């Protein structure tokens, strides 16, 4: 009697893809920019920067596994054109993906507590809010990611909180330079998320996932994406005239950002938008690195 072939289980390579390394720039860039803002005022601390990097990296890995789990059990990943999803593809049990998410959140919590105790204890509360925000993006009975608030949360947590938090833990305060870096990184990080949701408008609409892209529609989502990507370069110009002319180094990332935005401006859909995420993330990383250098030199 013929037997059905045994279903393939997730390999380490699949778990690596499930962690979505192309999104890790969203965690690395805020720490680079925040450390630069601290250095601008003579307060950079490399070991605290490394702790902040560990927190941010663990948090984004946790977010990615949590999204994989929550979207997978809701069925919103059944018809999508993006990278492999562990839960939706059936390669990993939902409980295993959920456990991976909480292990990552736990690591972020441990590192975050250590960083908070080295600076200000109340940052533990901020860290707890970040972990809750990461889970309830697509988790829980009323995920705010399904209400069109995903980009707002990304701007808040991976922009304002991550950059200003990094600066505060090193310099003991926040500054106008830090705020400019936070807005620039947050805008581009939100653009990465928006590009992902632009790609998924058809499948999200069919599954009832009301993202900001679904609310705005295709044309207005593309316009917003371009505005978000342009934001850090406008800030580079402003900082170049008001803080240090070295801030103009941030404009070196503009060609990469323009290449990343080209498919969005050209009307690409589905799989044609997948490269936008990685290219925009790298442009954000390049802008953060150039702005860090500007802060050190300025």
TrEMBL record:
The chain crosses the membrane at residues 21-40, 46-66, 96-115, 144-165, 171-195, 224-253, 273-297. It is found in: Cell membrane; Membrane. One of its GO terms (molecular function) is 1,4-dihydroxy-2-naphthoate polyprenyltransferase activity. Keywords: Cell membrane, Membrane, Menaquinone biosynthesis, Transferase, Transmembrane, Transmembrane helix. It holds the Pfam family UbiA. Pathway: Quinol/quinone metabolism; menaquinone biosynthesis; menaquinol from 1,4-dihydroxy-2-naphthoate: step 1/2. GO terms for cellular component: plasma membrane. InterPro entries: MenA (IPR004657), UbiA_prenyltransferase (IPR000537), UbiA_sf (IPR044878), UBIAD1 (IPR026046). GO terms for biological process: menaquinone biosynthetic process; vitamin K biosynthetic process. The keyword Protein transport does not apply. It catalyses: an all-trans-polyprenyl diphosphate + 1,4-dihydroxy-2-naphthoate + H(+) = a 2-demethylmenaquinol + CO2 + diphosphate. Its EC number is 2.5.1.74. It is a multi-pass membrane protein. Conversion of 1,4-dihydroxy-2-naphthoate (DHNA) to demethylmenaquinone (DMK). Belongs to the MenA family. Type 1 subfamily. This is 1,4-dihydroxy-2-naphthoate octaprenyltransferase. It comes from Corynebacterium mastitidis. The lineage of its organism: Bacteria, Bacillati, Actinomycetota, Actinomycetes, Mycobacteriales.
């Amino acid at each position: 009697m013929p037997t059905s072939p045994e279903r393939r289980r997730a390999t380490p390579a699949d778990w690596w893809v499930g962690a979505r390394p192309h999104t890790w720039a969203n965690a690395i860039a805020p720490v680079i920019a925040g450390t630069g803002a601290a250095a601008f005022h003579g307060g950079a601390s490399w070991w605290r920067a490394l702790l902040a990097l560990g927190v941010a990296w663990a948090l984004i890995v946790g977010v990615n596994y949590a999204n994989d789990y929550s979207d997978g059990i809701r069925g919103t990943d059944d018809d999508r054109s993006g990278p492999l999803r562990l839960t939706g593809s059936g390669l990993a049990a939902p409980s295993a993906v959920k456990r991976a998410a909480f292990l990552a959140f736990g690591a972020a919590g441990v590192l975050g507590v250590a960083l908070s105790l080295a600076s200000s204890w109340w940052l533990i509360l901020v860290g707890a809010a970040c972990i809750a925000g990461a889970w309830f993006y697509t988790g829980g009975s009323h995920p705010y990611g399904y209400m069109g608030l995903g980009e707002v949360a990304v701007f808040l947590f991976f922009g304002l909180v991550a950059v200003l938090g990094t600066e505060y833990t090193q310099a003991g305060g926040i500054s106008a330079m830090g705020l400019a870096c936070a807005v620039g990184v947050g805008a581009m990080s939100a653009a990465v998320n928006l590009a992902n949701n632009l790609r998924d408008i058809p499948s999200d609409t069919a599954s009832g996932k009301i993202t900001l892209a679904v609310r705005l529609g295709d044309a207005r989502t593309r316009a917003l994406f371009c505005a978000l990507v342009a934001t850090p370069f406008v800030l580079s110009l402003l900082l170049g005239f008001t803080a240090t002319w070295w801030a103009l180094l941030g404009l070196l990332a503009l060609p990469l950002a323009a290449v990343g935005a080209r498919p969005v401006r050209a009307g690409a859909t589905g799989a044609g938008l997948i490269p936008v995420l990685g290219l925009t993330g790298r442009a954000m990383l390049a802008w953060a690195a150039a702005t860090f250098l500007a802060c050190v030199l300025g």
